[in-house]
Amino acid sequence: MTSVTVRVPAKVNLQLAVGPRRDDGYHDLVNVFQAVSLFDEVTATTGPGAGGPLTSGDVTASVVVEGEAADQVPLDATNLAVRAAFAVGARAGRPVDVALRIRKAIPVAGGMAGGSADAAAALVACDELWGLALPRDELMDIAADLGSDVPFALLGGTAVGTGRGERLTSLAGGGEYHWVFALADGGLSTAKVYAECDRLREATGEPAAWPEASARLLAALEAADAKELGESLTNDLQPAAVLLHRPLSRTLAAGREYGALGALVSGSGPTCAFLAGSADHARELALALDVAGVCRATVTARGPVPGATVIGATA
């Protein structure tokens, strides 16, 4: 093949429970993820591309980015999609090259794992492009080495993540959920939000409890009860994110005022997620938030949706 395009979803955290900081600097987490229909697309093409050449061993890569906040995405070897290409290429056993084109719709630095999603898409695209047919377990191991959220972007659906969030258990259950995402001006550094969470706990003397999945939230998912799910949404990073980006408190309050079933900061923020009762309710809620002027923009989405999926290929 000469070109492979992969579509990959954003995620929203239905629960993010943050445990004590570990010796390696990470935190033990319980993440209940849901993949939602806000997608990036990554196209991997054989040969040199428009971006500058980047090399690692026998792998040569280039990357260009289009769309939402493209100018904020790195174009060097720190780009997670490039790192994913290097990691897959290292298993090819021969010199390989790839030009990556990323089309962004997932907010950059918005707490919806856009960079991790692009890495997952690049893993799938390069594996297909080079005809490696790596076992799924091996792709998941590579994904976990790249970042805590990358394995879920491969998996999709709804799942519980433990450890750093990379050890996943899929959750069965029916139901479709309708979301409104309020996009903020600027972004938040995940590392800074975690550091602020640690600081707040130290300042208040609140011990970091061992994280556990919420029985109430899991029961709501099993019953496909959107109202109960909305009341069960939690994020231990939310106080820290709100302190670092004060306008979020106004955005969250507005969403609740306008009838959201549930409201929370998505991941490390600053995107705010609102659960709606239906597709029509989501559209009405998005319009109300836009009119209120409490965010830069809104988008609606549904979940759960599949993880990274090949949507096109040319020979």
TrEMBL record:
**Domain (GHMP kinase C-terminal) ranges:** 218-289
Q: Describe the reaction catalysed, as an equation.
A: 4-CDP-2-C-methyl-D-erythritol + ATP = 4-CDP-2-C-methyl-D-erythritol 2-phosphate + ADP + H(+)
User: Which residues bind ATP per the record?
Assistant: 107-117
Q: What class of enzyme is it?
A: transferase
| Record function comment | Catalyzes the phosphorylation of the position 2 hydroxy group of 4-diphosphocytidyl-2C-methyl-D-erythritol.
Q: Which InterPro entries match?
A: GHMP_kinase_C_dom (IPR013750), GHMP_kinase_C_sf (IPR036554), GHMP_kinase_N_dom (IPR006204), IspE (IPR004424), Ribosomal_Su5_D2-typ_SF (IPR020568), Ribsml_uS5_D2-typ_fold_subgr (IPR014721)
Q: In which pathway does it act?
A: Isoprenoid biosynthesis; isopentenyl diphosphate biosynthesis via DXP pathway; isopentenyl diphosphate from 1-deoxy-D-xylulose 5-phosphate: step 3/6
Q: Name one GO molecular function term.
A: ATP binding
Gene name tied to this protein: ispE
Protein name per the record: 4-diphosphocytidyl-2-C-methyl-D-erythritol kinase
GO annotation, biological process: isopentenyl diphosphate biosynthetic process, methylerythritol 4-phosphate pathway; terpenoid biosynthetic process
Similarity comment text for this entry: Belongs to the GHMP kinase family. IspE subfamily.
Q: Which positions are catalytic residues?
A: 11, 149
* Domain named GHMP kinase N-terminal: residues: 79-157
Q: Name one Pfam family in it.
A: GHMP_kinases_N
EC assignment: the record states 2.7.1.148
Q: Which UniProt keywords apply?
A: ATP-binding, Isoprene biosynthesis, Kinase, Nucleotide-binding, Transferase
